[in-house]
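Quick bug: Translation initiation factor eIF2B subunit delta output formatted oddly.
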Amino acid sequence: MADSVDSALKSSSDIKSVQAQSSPATDTTPSQQTQTLPIRESKSAKSPAPSENQTGKNKDASKPPAAGADAAVPAGADKPLTPAELKKKAKAEKAARRAREKLAKESGGAGAAGSSAPGPGQGRPPATPKKDAAGGGASQKGQKAAQPRRGSAPTGQTAADEPTKKEDKSVAVFGHLYGQPRRTTIAGAGKEVHPAVLALGLQLRDYVVCGSSARCVATLLAFKRVIESYTTPLGTSLSRHLTTHLSHQITYLSTCRPLSISQGNAIRALKLAIASVDPSTPELSAKATLCEFIDNFIREKITVADQVIAGSAAQKVQDGDVIVTFAGSSIVKQTLLTAHKQGKRFRVSIIDSRPLFEGKNLARALANAGLDVQYSLVHAISHAIKDATKVFLGAHAMTSNGRLYSRVGTALVAMSAKERAGGVEVPVIVCCETVKFTDRVALDSIVVNEIADADELVSAQPLQQVTGLVDPVAPAKPDNKKGGKAASSAPKPDPSASSLNPSSSPLSNWKENPNLQLLNIMYDVTPAEYVDMVVTEMGSLPPSAVPIVHRMSTNL
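Here's what came back:
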């Protein structure tokens, strides 16, 4: 009985304590509800304004609960975000992620851990008040730690991680000539490009096929193979589709090396021949007609033209002449060989230049034919031109204003011949086919030119013997029959050979020098007043008659 009375008294005391604890909350609950509900509904709907007495009574009581109301509301009680807000939130998250990645890259390994520490509140509005309260402080600390102070020097680690900006090694005057670099491989070539054209492009790039006439002939022969293997697609004609098919071949060749004037004229003539083919002509006969046109073009414009020019120019050579020529023109070589076959005795002085050294092949061919040849580089031009009686030059092109567009250094040779010491002018004769004539006008060698790789000027080629004579300083071969003496009699390496190594060149690391730029241009322009005569297959004419002959040759 006593135990039951004690338990009853204890339970009643517990009930009273619970009521005492809950009574303040119940007193403040109505005021909180009356104040929080209008605040949350004020965004969507306007609540009626309370009276002044009620406002005064609830003013002090409403401030503390209103400040902590958002913290007490669960995340699920928030209103769902609109599509515009979701999109804005996604953009903010993406921007924050990019900022963290950039911060990690700049600060390195140590900064990467610090950049991952900031919470989602870094750089974007919080999704919920809880996330803001949890990650806001950490994100602000991470941002303050990552951003350097204004006016302070950057840390060594950040400065080391920044990539160094590469200096532009192009010469500003010729900046418009620096386009897409030459193709180095056949990778990336279109499937429409013929294998013969692929091989030709690499040969043009490596100067295996060098010279305006040689490039023109090689291009036409490659296009002949393209036409022979061509098949007209269904629903079209040969005259319409073949031109498009050839355009892919031309584009590939131009990426390997810019087309020459003779190549452009030959391609233009071939396209006119394709356009003149009747669409009703059978495919086999049309292809045979085009192949015959290519053969006739090569024979008339280049092969026979070279023979006529060589015979006409050889008549200008007399006994006892000293002929000066520059580089290695094929038509000049044929002219000199023709004059030598006619029994004329003369001497040839070849002036050459880097980096192609085209004059070496010309000197070898003339020396093997029995001519007296002198070979020198362009820096010795004053000595080579001293005894000259005539100058024979080849041409890459002849412009409409009578100027000669040829290998760089040609203008220097022509000017030296006209203005040499002593006041005696040496006649300058240019041998050029009409296929190299153009209607363009060239005033200088800056507007139109070709830029080659500057590294070609740095690489040093090993010394080569021009003639076929035995080298007197060549080391003797060791005799393997003498046993141990073979090793002792082996020639010792020449210490001077290391100077021919391209890596030992003082310009091998020229790209790392911030104040050094190399220029390797291919052509220059010789003024018309330095040229006395232009020998073509149509006769000998002055430079001023070039546009007339060009118009006549294109209308034939």
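Actually, after a second look the formatting is fine. The chain is about 45% helix and 10% strand. Closing.
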